[in-house]
Protein: peptidylprolyl isomerase
Amino acid sequence: MRQTKKLALAVTLALSAAGAFAAVATVNGVAIPDSRLDFFVKQVAERGQKDTPELRARIKEELVRNEVLVQEAAKKGLEKNSDVQTRLELARQQILVGALVNEYVKTNPVSEAELKKEYERIKVNLSGKEYKARHILVKEEAEAKTIVAELKKGKKFEDLAKEKSIDKGSAQNGGDLGWSNPSAFVPEFGNALKAMQKGKLSEPVKSQFGYHIIKLDDVRDAKGPNYEELKPELQRELQGQKVQNYVKGLVDKAKVQ
Structure:
């Protein structure tokens, strides 16, 4: 009776062990665990691929191929090569660093309150005015003054821009620069733009590029992105800052000799 119970217990333990170490394949007596296959399937699924029998078959084939090559590398003693050992150690460190950062991010997410506070802080820079302007850019001040005189006599700005401007990108559109914040331009141009009235023409404005004749077509209140539009970007930035501070704190506390 006792022998029967012992046999039953041994069978149960053997079956349990077999289940715990289920293999997707065995290569030259070395088992490739199912957990390795499941890990790769999960990685691929996170990138949008569907878990299918065909996908698992391809991954299994790759795992078998890799095991064959690893065994061959071991036969040749490549694990003992100093460069290989260094690269293996660096890879191990990278994996551990990634795991540590992921664990920190998971347990220290950016809160909604932090996101809204950051949005309110930068919202000031998203407001203000936008200007729709045209310009004609020339090299010499004398030529710029001549163009201003021609414009005042009734010449069309668009025609002179196409004919005279050395800024070929805007010249083909009659000098049109579209809607922009003054900060998008060099300071001399941006400051002149802010001082202008709608529909007016500037005197030549000197910058590092030459002399600009500016025509202000329109002005409007800037409409920056709202909170929901900026939220993903803010989340990435704030989470990145948190990780940097966490890493810095660990480094600062470490005893480095």
Strands lie at 23-27, 30-33, 129-138, 176-180, 205-207, 210-221.
